[in-house]
């Protein structure tokens, strides 16, 4: 496709102003211009206002024969609770490649969860002079994908409880009569979707009237075991009071109460499906085979058994198209899907990466971010996302900060909202050197996938040259392809030019195939143990519940799936306080769950919160609108 | 503004095909062409894909000096559970005015709730050859307004429970320290929004350190009485199991459990605010003064007391702009807001009507629909919506069907999903004549507002000339300006040309000011009684709870608000089975609630469900996507 340039030069101030002030000071380019710079024509996208557009999946058909660009994943060392600037580096690197090194580049990042924007965390559009804009639209509804996920997830949840309710009060005959009602001529027919359940039951009849009473019973009774239901409701709000609730207490529900709860929407399996799907028809199938629980006889019950896989796809039909936005320097960004990395696989969508790789074409760059530390983010990028996408990365970046390395070297605890200890604000090379064990393990682990590893040292104003040299030496000694200091937060793309050049060399000199950490045909336990070993564990300990669930999944035929560890992001191990590169521990598996539609088994290592709460003074106190200009105030 | 024509001629088939087939057979015009036909330039709207656009409120400033078009409200007689084609008539009339009578016209209708689309009801885009298209986009996410309402409503709900939780476990000092934390220099400051609460408390200090301990206590402790909380959570899903739930059962919530429930999103007060607001600044103020419950000492606690009114406005900032769509014949439609008419005021937004009236200009027509029968829909249009908008309608339409009139005349019960009794399929003039008492009372009531009343007889294939003549005679005798048979369902705009001409005459010959049913300075009870009288009631009976609440609202200073009756749509009275024009009954008021932000008091007449359920075989069984074309299948 032909292309045009949309670069915008930034004027930077020092000290760096607040993120929202930087973002509001720049007039974004029309998104149609950004689209044009990628060679997209108006029929390839749908506008959502002036600064966002959904790039239609159909563009992939047209680009089938184009060559692929380079594919770079951005991971990080084990972070402090403040975050080490992984999104910022992803954005800054693209600004460098696009605006200073004259490369075609697309940033692929996750859509942030809206709930935490009003809680503690603030937005996720990068920071300083490396941001996605307009940052309010990025952090708020975007183009409605998470809302669609919430709707689809909760429609399925309502269908589950209501189906149990109707089955409890009706005879087989009454259920059949309602599910396949006779028309005016007295003839019954199956809805198309019902043939999926009939097939599963081994019934090949197409006329409802031919079913035997035994077959009618099998067809109409899902016989869901309420205690087996794993499908929870979701909401994109930090609402801790919904973590555990009892539903069905109204008089019309006749005492059919049940304990359940809400997760935050990005924890929905449907978010994972969106991130891992490869086409509309693939999404239809994945949504249909999502398992909500078991029948009383132990059979998995799917969305298609409930007759709802098609409706869920209809609710998700717009969400499957990634959203095009732009960086502060006018380079293109595709925002799509946002599963959490500690409870799901934590990577943006396959379809966005696939589109981007074709749009940048040969010699161009797609920079995609993996959530949290490389132990969970990059690992899942390789073993789950890349396995499903078939795409091969050439380079993996590990973002490191002096702050986090000092913490790993034994520095005092870093707590969000509390002032930093002086250890983090003054030179301490020994502490940095001690902390490099964490970086080294991330480098070693990442190299095993066959990619070139580039370390990006995200420099803060208080970091010294001696400290940065220590990191660089440790990284190169560990086999990193390069280790580069960058200042994109303070300087925009200009501050990441060296990183861009290193990444370019790393990609151009790469020639190895992608190697996975484990083949899929290992047993569930062997796969878990392979990942645990990469954490530094000597072994794995399964709870009784975990053992039981593994047996269930083997019996149900799900043992060929990849593994998605639900583990804290604050340590290689399961204990957040274990910094550095812990060794010799036994990894405890509390429970094992499955996202059959998304396509992975997820062992729970410790207790992960799937619904955040609001603090005493949430961010929302500062968020308001300027009535005159219509601009959003106080978003951070 | 200049304008161009976008008319599309329909080829109609007989018998009328399924709604989705008619809708899918027509290629919609680009919405930019529809916008251009109204004289809108690209800077006046934001595209949402190719067939939807949000018309920006700022266009009102530019049009301030334009003359107003005619303003017509569409109500109906008391309906059967099947609905009498009010939306269809609203759409068909506009197709007639725009495509056959060469008038500038805008249809203003409500956005349908997405939940019921997957339950029993199907969509709400009109029907037959009078529809809004694309009907799948109309019935599904549209441009995300209801999702924004859900998010804002539930953020407030989470803030309420979390605030009670934090107040319960912290001292005044700890709360103050968190709400107004010292900066690096040790100085505290109030967030802008906190000055609203300080003002309410009569504290005029601007430095937090100047507050006395007593003032600190008043400032930090909302002291919400959990039993007084009227703010519930919402979801746009038919999820009956959420009607009554217990929240806070997780161990971290330390036993702070509470009984509450979910309503469907369109029942949120924020939906009513969206429908009744007149500008961005007005919406900010309304959202801030929404009352969630009382303090233990009986003071109303508002969203601004919680510090969240600004954040709610930010979540609603795009939702305030109405969505432009089109009819099957290419006339423009503004879709905006969708409060239920039985539990809220049931009318589309004021801002959409205001924009439309300026866009059509002098001699043009704005046709806006009021929900359910004229007893609730038109009444609330006049006494609530028009009072807040300041707009004056010239003409009110009352849609009637032979089917519903026969029911009012004593015909057998009409039940959704069951075959119609033969009384409804064969000529029975006597039954029709007997039923006209219902129509006559709607005409008489509506005339009192000073508008010309036109009866639209929505003809079905089985209706006879004699039956229709009976209706026409009764309508004219009751003082209707005209009564016209229309066949827009079968013929599109062509079938409503006579109705269009009658409406034109009614508007052109109108000269009276708008008269309200009651002035605002009557007492709450006198206002309720004025409305009850219009229903045919001889009096009103208040429960103890209702009496108590009325006292509370008087004490809190809310007695000047208009009244929004929450009453069944199936009868003038509170008893759905009382058809025709019941008289001599006493209207029972079970409870009285208030939507202070939206701006009305709503007495509950009987028990209204605010959360629908799913039937044994919901519509979702038939809804799927055609993988090849991407088209939605099975939506009705």
Automatic annotation (TrEMBL), chains A, B:
- Tell me which positions the record assigns to the signal sequence: none
Q: Which SUPFAM superfamilies does this chain map to?
A: P-loop containing nucleoside triphosphate hydrolases
What molecular function terms (GO) are annotated for this protein?
A: ATP binding; formate-tetrahydrofolate ligase activity
Cited InterPro entries: Formate_THF_ligase (IPR000559), Formate_THF_ligase_CS (IPR020628), P-loop_NTPase (IPR027417)
Is Oxidoreductase found in the keyword set? no
Q: PROSITE patterns in the record, alphabetically? A: FTHFS_1, FTHFS_2
Quaternary state and partners of this protein?
Homodimer.
EC numbers: 6.3.4.3
Q: In which pathway does it act?
A: One-carbon metabolism; tetrahydrofolate interconversion
Q: Which domain of life is it from?
A: Eukaryota
Q: Which HAMAP family match?
A: FTHFS
Q: Check the record and name the Pfam families matching this protein.
A: FTHFS
Q: Is the keyword Heme assigned to this protein?
A: no
User: Under which main EC class is this enzyme filed?
Assistant: ligase
The entry's keywords? ATP-binding, Ligase, Nucleotide-binding, One-carbon metabolism
Protein name stated in the entry = formate--tetrahydrofolate ligase
